[in-house]
């Protein structure tokens, strides 16, 4: 990693002792900062607390004392999930103390170029595709960010021979100041995380930060079909490479004659791609744009696209049981994601849905239910989804207590050649800690049917 002096003798407060907080605190200590860590839920006996204290880092557990913010604090590093309404962060902002996420630290120390990917939907699939294509092409990629590996940990290991493929959420991007990826990918913009950002404008602003600091030697990959993405790309001073599923773009990545093209070069026939769903074509076009800029060969791209079946919990094929195909799309935590999943299938479909009630209705889902023959519903939103099902003329509607019961019930009402898909259209937090836990329980329940 780069040996920088930016944080030497600086007084830094790290708020939140999850994976990113622990990694940031250890890195800042290594860089010579005077670090204090504060976590509301941590206790003195936690291994991470003891580890930091052994290094000489001060750790304050159990509450958020406002006395931690003073004129002597130079910087706040926050866990991405902690809202800006947190009293400590609000006070820091009032006192004009910069507040960042660990992504900013990763950028400052990284010797490797960064390919950054964000968007309301498709981030993880696109990030994984880029990583796999670059790996197949021998480009020594490392994967990091919102996909599960703390960015500043990966950046410490990266050399100039690597490239870091980094998935970024709006939460992470909002806490950046100088962050400048060599290649920035913005897939799409839809209403999301408004409970965190407060307004769509604030959410869009956070997403747009991926382009904000780019210069002429960088590249911005832009979804030509998304007006808001195109508008945000105007912030960038980088070379722009557009992709589109609807328009032939001579200088971009596009679809023509049932094939994917990069500029004027045919890459692959769409029928040879194994990843299901028309919505994934956008993700694939974006990934191809990024890896071609890094010198990946067509052979490497084609090898990945003819073998990559998807990311776990994202329209993941689970099993074929007596000619019923089961798919796990637990990551579909909003209506848009579920609508895209339903568009991936043209055969009779049984939809398993429901979860945390965030106050919204589900009428926007109605146009995508034409192939749905049954809905199995659970969680807080089951009554709302039942109304939508009835108004859409779906004859088989069942309400159950949990995902395991939903799998059993779906199988009981299914016929040969049906698709059974968990695509909840809701967050998981009414019954589960994470969408991953929800998806894992679905997978286990499917395997028990055998």
Give an overview in words.
With 450 residues, the protein is α/β, with parallel strands linked by helices. The protein folds into 3 domains: 11-100, NAD(P)-binding Rossmann-like Domain (Rossmann fold, 3-Layer(aba) Sandwich), CATH 3.40.50.720; 103-305, Mur-like, catalytic domain (UDP-N-acetylmuramoyl-L-alanine:D-glutamate ligase, 3-Layer(aba) Sandwich), CATH 3.40.1190.10; 316-448, Mur ligase, C-terminal domain (Protein-Tyrosine Phosphatase, Chain A, Alpha-Beta Complex), CATH 3.90.190.20. It is built from 16 helices and 20 strands. Helix 5 (123-136) packs across helix 12 (298-305). The longest helix has 14 residues, at 123-136. Residues 313-426 form the Mur ligase C-terminal domain. Its main location: cytoplasm. Its EC number is 6.3.2.9.
| Domain unit count | 3
What does the main sheet amount to?
Answer: 6 strands, parallel
Based on CA atoms alone, the radius of gyration comes out at 23 Å
What is the averaged pLDDT score?
A: 95
Shape: globular
CATH superfamily of the largest domain: Mur-like, catalytic domain
Topology:
Layout: E1 11-15, H1 19-30, E2 34-39, H2 47-55, E3 58-61, E4 75-78, H3 87-94, E5 99-100, H4 102-109, E6 113-118, H5 123-136, E7 141-145, H6 151-157, E8 163-167, H7 170-174, E9 183-186, H8 194-197, H9 200-212, E10 219-223, H10 227-233, E11 239-243, E12 253-256, E13 259-262, E14 265-269, H11 280-293, H12 298-305, E15 316-321, E16 324-328, H13 335-343, E17 349-353, E18 372-377, H14 382-391, E19 396-399, H15 403-413, E20 419-422, H16 435-448
Parallel strand pairs: 1-2, 1-4, 2-3, 4-5, 6-8, 6-9, 7-8, 9-10, 10-11, 16-20, 17-18, 17-20, 18-19
Antiparallel strand pairs: 12-13, 13-14, 15-16
Helix pairs in contact: 4-6, 5-11, 5-12, 9-10, 15-16
